[in-house]
Design a protein that fits this description.
197 residues, mainly alpha, 10 helices, 2 strands
Amino acid sequence: MKQKRWSRTLGAGVLIVGAWMMTAGAGAAPPNAAMLSNACAGCHGTGGGSAGPTMPSLAGQSKEAIVVAMKKFKSGERPSSIMGRLAKGYTDADFDNMGEFFSKQKLHPTQQTLDAARVARGAALQEANCSRCHLEDGKEGKDDTPAMASQWLPYMQMQMALYLSDQRKMPEKMAEKVKPLSVDDLEALLHFYASVK
């Protein structure tokens, strides 16, 4: 008899604790944009200002550019070493929140040594070839085109190598402009974008 009463008491206690846990979980607020974006700080820097030459700055990118990139990482369409695995842990709503957060951060100017002659040549090439999508000298991007201004040169060189080797799919509008250019032309363009403050 005592055992039955004890079992009923234990069962009621489990139900009460379970109900309390469900209520507590339901009342917990989902992570906000800043909280989600803090997870990116280890590689992309606080507020999206990268401190490492192989990681892009996310500050000032358009929301659309970030959302599209994250979806491509998640699906495997865009090659990556780490981002593909990380992106699988986020929802589309998370991508929207992170994109919104980083799009409101100020451009992060990098300090790097660049070839002045290449920067000058790249400025002319950019105006003729890239300025319709990479706006304001690369400070803004049209639609889902990324902002290029003041990105680390090694990061941009790595991404261009992926494009040229067909490991990363080049957008058609970009391919039309890039294919006629020489390797030296492309290097000059990257030096120019890296120089923009």
